[in-house]
Design goal:
Blueprint: E1 3-9, E2 13-20, E3 30-33, H1 38-52, E4 58-63, E5 97-102, H2 103-114, E6 123-128, E7 132-138, E8 141-142, H3 173-177, H4 179-190, H5 197-205, H6 209-233, E9 237-241, H7 250-260, E10 267-270, H8 277-287
Parallel strand pairs: 1-4, 4-5, 6-9, 9-10
Antiparallel strand pairs: 1-2, 2-3, 6-7, 7-8
Length: 288
């Protein structure tokens, strides 16, 4: 049975464990705070890999940021990671093969092989968290585009500069559909800079009409983006993952999407492979 040392590199946490070619987690999942400078981050990765590389066939790394089509390098700047991260040569970290993939792409692949989109030949996954990530599976293959950056959820929702996005542009899907987007929507609708996403969710649970209105507006932003994605890619299904996906009404979104799209009907599902889907997916890609 082939195994990988799977590592998930995020802006605040780094996880690692050993996973086999079937996506089964074999070891304890260890967690570290992401270092704040390049040398410390590189040293942490080198030490982790050195400890485990003799037990595995490959080092499989899921990471924030777009990854090139050779699965060797981050090609975009990643604002939530250390300066110089996109210059890191991952292969220098180990004598074994090092395989790198964007974390959202890896999670989408985990869902395609083992999860909610297993029966879907073509699927789009949107990860709704602090920001929004995405992964595209077309005809059973991960679609990465010409440079590896496909799946970034930064298409425009409005043309007139209403809301600045974390990417530096204006009015991207991420700026409306993310947890951050929900907070900004609440701030705008309630004229309260101190309101939190937790207060909105709690208010919905307690039938607060103002919070329900905020939530409905946020969910309609998600709906608008999903309609566009379904029309563009004509997938079998759409998958929603991430911490904010827990709160969305899948039946509402599926009904709304299918009422408006010009392509064939699509199903919508919540992801089921869990918090470690990035590590599972990148292992499946690296070993298979």
């Amino acid at each position: 049975m082939k195994k990988a040392l799977a590592i998930d590199i995020g802006g605040t946490k780094i996880y690692h464990t050993i996973i086999d070619e079937n996506g089964k987690i074999l070891g304890k999942i260890e967690k570290y705070s992401t270092p704040k400078n390049f040398d410390e981050l590189k040293a942490l990765l080198e030490n982790t890999i050195k400890t485990y590389e003799n037990e595995v066939e490959v080092i499989a790394i899921a990471t924030a940021g777009a990854v090139n089509n050779e699965n060797s390098k981050v090609v975009s700047s990643t604002g939530n990671l250390v300066e110089g991260y996109n210059q890191l040569n991952f292969q220098t970290l180990s004598t074994k093969k090092v395989f790198v993939e964007n974390d959202a792409n890896a999670a989408a692949w985990a869902e395609h092989v083992l999860g909610a989109s297993k029966s879907c030949n073509s699927s789009i996954m949107a990860t709704l968290g602090t920001g929004v990530g995405g992964g595209i599976i077309l005809n059973g293959k991960l679609y990465k585009g010409k440079s590896g950056a496909a799946g970034e959820m930064h298409f425009k929702m409005y043309p007139d500069k209403r809301r600045k996005c974390s990417c530096g542009s204006w009015d991207c899907f991420e700026a409306y559909a993310s947890g951050t987007g929900l907070k900004i929507t609440a701030e705008e609708m309630l004229d309260d800079k101190n309101v939190t996403t937790y207060q909105v969710i709690d208010g919905v649970k307690n039938n607060d009409p103002k919070m329900i209105s905020v939530f409905d507006t946020w969910q309609n932003h998600i709906l608008a983006g999903l309609i566009g994605l379904a029309n563009l890619f004509d997938p079998d299904c759409l998958v929603l993952s991430g911490s904010m996906a827990e709160f969305v009404d899948v039946e509402f979104l599926e009904k709304g999407v299918n009422e408006e799209i010009v392509t064939a009907p699509v199903t919508i599902h919540k992801a089921i492979t869990g918090n470690y889907s990035g590590m599972i997916g990148v292992t499946l890609l690296a070993l298979n």
